[in-house]
Amino acid sequence: MQALIKLSKAIDGLNALVGKAVIWLIFAATIISALNAVVRKVFNYSSNGYLEMQWYLFAWSFLVAAGYTLLHREHVRIDVVNSRLSKRTQVWIDIIGFAFFLTPLCLVTIYLCTPLLIEKYQSGEISGNPGGLIRWPVWLSIPIGFTLLMLQGWSELIKRIAFLRGQGPDPMGRLTSKSAEEELAEALRVEAIRKEAALVQGSTPTPAPQAR
Q1: Which of 78, 99, 97 is nearest to 89 (CA)?
Q2: How far separated are the first and last CA of the chain, in Å rounded?
Q3: Residue 186 lies inside a defined structural domain of this protein
Q4: Of residues 90 and 153, which shows the higher confidence score?
Q5: Are the beta carbons of 52 and 127 closer than 8 angstroms?
Q6: What DSSP designation does 167 have?
Q7: Percent of the chain at pLDDT above 90?
Q8: What's the domain count of the chain?
Q9: What is the model's pTM?
Q10: 40 three-class SS
Q11: What CA–CA distance (Å, rounded) separates 148 from 154?
């Protein structure tokens, strides 16, 4: 089991590294979008290549960060029923989901898209839009993204099995933590209370000195 736990940590580290790198893809898409707007306004020139590059980068950032998102349990969850169940039942539901739903989905997607990727690479298919880009680089993001997602699913599966065997921490603990939106709302509430207290303190009249 310890070897599997080490494998889980290695997968977590890989997806954490990928997640941090993805921010540069988003930054690049932002820069290209801004440059495209400036060139179009100043020089009255634009190209479909700029637009396609933006959604290429968006596709890459969205797909390859799927494993990172699962690592931090930020995918959309509907816990109306699940949250009312016992901890062990919740863990078993996740085990079934990762083993019999997520893994087959990723395997089927990789299996179906890989021949298409090879075909587009060999043919050098180019976008039908004037000034468009070659297609295979954006198709490459699909097998890579789903492979990273599947690996992270296996990592989460290992964590839950380790928890049931008493060899790992509670993998569901992060579900009870506050979301980024909740933390921001809490910080704003505390700041508002602090400012209100400062105003009240500042408006309190200073007692006049007593004559001797």
Answers
A1: 97
A2: 82
A3: yes
A4: 153
A5: yes
A6: S
A7: 39
A8: 1
A9: 0.75
A10: helix
A11: 10
User: Is residue 159 included in any domain, yes or no?
Assistant: yes
Q: Which two tokens stand for residue 212?
A: 């001797």
CA–CA distance, 18 with 8 (Å, rounded to integer):
15
Q: Given 3-state DSSP classes, what are the helix, strand and coil percentages for the chain, each rounded to the nearest 5?
A: 75, 0, 25
Distance CA 82, CA 48 (A): 46
Which DSSP letter does residue 20 get? H
Give the C-alpha separation, 61 to 18, whole Å. 9
Give domain status of residue 17, yes or no. Answer: yes
- What's the rounded Cα separation, in Å, for the pair 76 and 13? 22
C-alpha–C-alpha distance, residues 190 and 192, integer Å: 5
Q: Are 164 and 88 in contact (CB under 8 A)?
A: yes
Q: Is residue 206 part of a domain?
A: no
Residues paired with 126 in a beta bridge: 134
pLDDT of residue 208: 54
Half-sphere CA count of 53, side-chain side, radius 13 A: 17
Cα 10–170–98 angle (5° rounding)?
60
Tokens coding 97: 């989901």
Please give the residue range of the domain that contains residue 12. 2-201
- Nearest partner of 101 among 65, 70, 122, 55, judged by Cα: 70
